[in-house]
UniProtKB/TrEMBL annotation, chain B:
<dbReference type="InterPro" id="IPR016568">
    <property type="entry name" value="Sulphur_oxidation_SoxY"/>
</dbReference>
<dbReference type="InterPro" id="IPR032711">
    <property type="entry name" value="SoxY"/>
</dbReference>
<protein>
    <submittedName>
        <fullName>Thiosulfate oxidation carrier protein SoxY</fullName>
    </submittedName>
</protein>
<dbReference type="Pfam" id="PF13501">
    <property type="entry name" value="SoxY"/>
</dbReference>
<feature type="domain" description="Ig-like SoxY">
    <location>
        <begin position="35"/>
        <end position="136"/>
    </location>
</feature>
<dbReference type="InterPro" id="IPR038162">
    <property type="entry name" value="SoxY_sf"/>
</dbReference>
Length: 565, 138
């Protein structure tokens, strides 16, 4: 942990934290500065409208470490395009100095060393300070939550999302949209939404039986801010019943529904909207494609794929803003709207350095109140790690390797499968692993660890299917997760091929033998979308494994060979 | 290793999943198109076909078709063992030439709508609908 005083000694490129009206690299704004709260918040208020975007918090109330991906491959038209740029290439693209705070916040290299220097990120009491500062500049700024808020922690699981609802209500959002929220079950979601003091939006949330817009989730809401009529349109995650268990919310249907999006944009424009904002949980590449098909959207606030971009991406006249995940970033977008037109913008992706930004005391108190009943369970130390534990990346992360090891040993399996979700904070080498840490990477309402037999042929079908959800060159056929993680199994993947042809050389690592298509293998996994899945909860499996290890150590994993990039 | 009853309940996982790879176009679909058009040329465009990119449930996929001024619209699921889904006929008094229904898809495949226009010409639209195991949302 570093002191606030130490932080003042850290120099950074201010350019990497500034947006501007117009595009280009921020390097031209470069100036060496010390990192302070004032500088993180510094913003030359612009135009007449301010938007504040936060998304994919995954119930992270407290500061955490979060390592950005090393592997994030784009395919088709998005090959090599942001957000599919990582590491040093990302820093060069945005003019970020090596070793700078932005290096730490936005890229993966030297993560452990930089994490020790710069400390944890996020914490909703720090986020509250940033929001309050923006509201001090612009009292009527709109705060928009992109969803994946009521999921992802011990307290969120135990309270069925109530902890997050209570804390977010203290931040006073103006609207939100949804994804993992629905895995609380449709009855719970309806109960919460009925009492929400802000708009719950989704133009693509339909009543399944009637194939009509669902009454509980209006498509849009109008706001009058800065003398401007603003329409905020919600876009929930399109593939909820496919990527998550549809049986938990059987009354609802989703989909991209871009033809309906166009109809809604036309409707709000005809009702006098001067600025149209889409609060989206599509994922970045889907938003980019949608921006090229639907005309009339000024700003897409993009969530789901957990990308953090220091500049908006422009598609036609639409700007797309990506604000990261796990409470690590807040985006501020100031807009100049005149005569019914967006004339310019100024943008800043604000990293929430938790040792630099003063927590808001009121919100700290609300957070502590949510956690107090569970304090002992949360803080119980289960073990320790010698390795950096992280998840994000297209293929295996060390957290997933550890979870797969736990599944193989605790469930006596040949092969383990772990879902390619993108949430879950990191743990530094030498850190204790608490029960809270385990829940942060496993918590869900369908976390039972199944044990089953699959033929070699079916294992390949699973990998091909998930691979196509990630590497189909048309973003509309992507679901926005990463590749299913595997333990005990090696394979090759050529991401440039078609479904059915990407995966080859499946190998059972314990014997070194090729997987036999007709032979049965015992597979342990978790997060099955099928109703009636049985087994112990995954967090109990992982806890038991870590307890037996005492100190865990995760060896480098090169069992997935990737080509066609 | 032995399976307990509890463990084996998870085996349902694979039930429909062997059918996720793209289905090839069934030869019967060409015959159905020829029967509908009488072998006339079919142009692209002029037909609205709305279908999900990824089916939430392959057993009941909502679709809608429309073509202004059409006298009939035929819908085909090109990869199904029986590709013919429906032909909607519109009389002169029809307020609009649109129809919605739900169809069953055996796997990832192309759904095609062919409209017979009032002047006897034919137009088509198609849409790829993916049927997937799913289960890995970020």
């Amino acid at each position: 942990m570093i002191s606030r005083r130490d932080f003042l000694q850290v120099s950074m490129a201010a350019s990497a934290l500034y947006g501007a009206s117009g595009f280009g690299q921020w390097g031209r704004l470069a100036a060496q500065q010390k990192l302070t709260q004032d500088q993180l918040l510094d913003f030359d208020t612009f135009g007449n409208v301010s938007l504040i975007h936060i998304t994919d918090i995954h119930a992270q109330l407290k500061p955490i470490y979060f390592r950005e991906p090393e592997i994030n491959l784009g395919v088709g038209p998005n090959k090599g395009e942001v957000p599919h740029v990582t590491g040093a290439d990302f820093r060069r693209l945005y003019g970020i100095d090596d070793g700078s705070p932005s290096h730490y916040a936005l890229t993966y290299n030297d993560f452990t060393a930089l994490a020790r220097e710069y400390g944890r990120v996020g914490g909703l009491d720090r986020v509250a300070t940033v929001i309050n500062a923006i509201r001090a500049d612009r009292p009527d700024a709109l705060l928009l939550d992109g969803g994946d808020t009521w999921h992802g922690s011990y307290t969120c699981y135990k309270t069925e999302g109530q902890d997050m609802v209570n804390v977010m209500n203290a931040l006073k959002p103006d609207a939100m949209t949804f994804h993992w929220e629905f895995t609380l079950g449709q009855d719970r979601v309806r109960d919460i939404v009925a009492d929400l003091p802000f708009a719950a939006l989704g133009q693509n949330i339909f009543d399944k039986m009637w194939d009509e817009p669902a009454a509980e989730f209006p498509p849009y809401k109008f706001f009058e801010r800065g003398g401007t009529k603003i329409a905020v349109i919600g876009q929930a995650f399109p593939y909820m019943p496919i990527a998550n268990p549809g049986w938990m919310f059987p009354d609802y249907s989703f989909g991209i529904r871009d033809e309906n999006m166009q109809a809604i944009v036309d409707e709000v424009r005809s009702k006098g909207a001067e600025l149209v904002v889409c609060l989206s949980h599509n994922g970045f590449d889907v938003d980019k494609k949608m921006a090229g098909i639907v005309s009339g959207i000024d700003v897409i606030l993009s969530g789901h794929t957990h990308d953090a971009l220091p500049e908006p991406v422009l598609v036609g006249d639409t700007i797309i803003v990506a604000s990261g995940s796990n409470g690590k970033f807040v985006s501020r977008v100031d807009l100049d709207v005149r005569d019914g037109q967006m004339m310019g913008f100024r943008h800043k992706l604000i990293p929430i350095f938790s040792d630099v930004i003063e927590p808001d005391k009121d919100v700290t108190a609300v957070i502590d109140a949510q956690r107090a009943p569970f304090k002992a369970e949360l803080e119980e130390v289960i073990g320790k790690t010698d390795s950096l534990l992280y998840r994000r990346g297209n293929f295996n992360g060390t957290w997933d390797d550890l979870i797969c090891d736990a599944l193989i040993s605790e469930r006596e399996a040949d092969i383990a499968m772990s879902p390619g979700v993108r949430w879950g904070p990191s743990i530094l080498p030498g850190q204790d692993i608490t029960r809270e840490d385990i829940f942060n990477v496993t918590s869900m309402t369908y976390g039972k660890a199944y044990r089953t037999e699959m033929t070699g042929e079916f294992i390949k079908v699973v990998l091909e299917d998930v691979g196509d959800n990630l590497f189909n060159p048309d973003p509309y056929y992507q679901q926005g997760g990463d590749m299913v993680r595997v333990g005990g199994l090696g394979y090759r993947i050529d991401i440039s091929k078609k479904q059915g042809e990407r995966i080859s050389d499946l190998t059972l690592l314990s014997t070194g033998e090729q997987i036999d298509p007709s032979k049965n293998y015992v597979v342990a996994g978790w997060a099955s979308v099928n109703e009636g899945t049985e087994g112990p909860q995954i967090w109990d499996v992982v806890e038991s494994h870590i307890r037996k290890q005492g100190t865990v150590s995760v060896a480098p994993n090169d069992s997935v060979k990737v080509s066609g990039t | 290793m032995e399976f307990s009853r509890r463990d084996t309940l998870a085996l349902g996982l694979g039930a429909a999943a062997m059918t996720v790879l793209p289905f090839r176009v069934n030869a019967a679909s060409d015959d159905a198109i020829t029967a509908f058009t009488g072998g006339a040329d079919v142009t692209e465009g002029g037909v609205d076909l709305t279908a999900p990119e990824i089916a939430e449930n392959g057993n009941t996929v909502p679709i809608s078709v429309g073509a202004e001024g059409a006298s009939a619209i035929m819908v085909l699921a090109m990869g199904n063992p029986t590709p013919g889904v429906a032909t909607f006929n519109f009389g002169e008094l029809a307020g609009s030439q649109t129809a919605s229904t739900r169809i069953r898809l055996a796997g990832t495949q192309e759904v095609v709508a062919i409209a017979k226009m009032a002047d006897g010409s034919f137009a088509r639209a198609s849409s790829e609908v993916k049927v997937t195991i799913g289960g890995c949302g970020g």
